[in-house]
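The data are set out underneath:

___
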Amino acid sequence: MNIKDKIISNNIEFKNRVVMPPMATAKADDKGHITNEILNYYEEKTSCKLFSAVIVEHSYVDERGKAHNNQTSTSDDSDIEGMRSLAKVIKDNNSLAVLQISHAGSAAKKDVTGMDPVAPSAILNPASKSTDMPVELNKSQIKDLKDKFIDAAERAKEAGFDGVELHSAHAYLLDQFLSPLTNKREDEYGGNIYGRIKLHLDIIKGIRVKLGEDFPIFLRMGAGDFMEGGLSKEDSVIAAMEFEKAGVNVLDISGGMCFYTIKDTRPGYFDVISKPIFEAVNIPVILTGGVKKGTDVMDILDRNVCDLVGIGRSVFKESDWMNRELKGLIKE
């Protein structure tokens, strides 16, 4: 697998095997609107023109799901204008622009939102010791949240984004439904893996109905919790296959209740959970984590554990990293 190879899959084309994964900047204004600071940040990080796709940091679909102060929003039509400017910056730098949409669930804090957090079950978020006890969602509230995700995807498309990514990792709401550690429901949204992904499937199908078959849907999946009693590899593979059947075009593999790091620090450390998914699905798989050198990207691709590699913290720390480490490998 060569870093320069294109991937053409259904309705999406990646010009090479490198993507910029979502990383929160906390640079929005107090209403979640895009600021010049955000536009300048993405201009700086993408001006190398080397990323095949840029997945923009998580944007809340509902104020009650706001994860932190100065997080970006796609919860209201007033967000579209700023998002349009952001999508343009990325696309002008020759990358696909994908917007990650999210709800923090029990990871939201009352002192940020002014509201009690909500979750599949009334269980403290295992990824954070400081969160408030969430209120268990009723079925009507779950259906309302489904609609909020669909509406956010519609706003992203209207703003000119090339796709959306559903955030079901890092102990946020959709991940809380996915994980048996946080989903103890006894109705159709809980129980076995099929129940625990019902909300995901409803959102995916709803986006397909509203935006058509050609609008790309990515899904960032917390494919392992790395905690006793957490999501099993078997269930993560079943979930991945069901997401593909429902219409997801790209799977972006990361951690669940362990957030985005584990004790293993080698490049591509989540390959233990990405490999079985990569082998089970027929859509592109992204793997992010631990990349410090350009050769790390080639090493990960050579392991046959993913199709695309995300480069996050290295670029976050050093804007010229891509030019220094990968320009010679990607461009002739």
Summary: The chain has a mean pLDDT of 96.
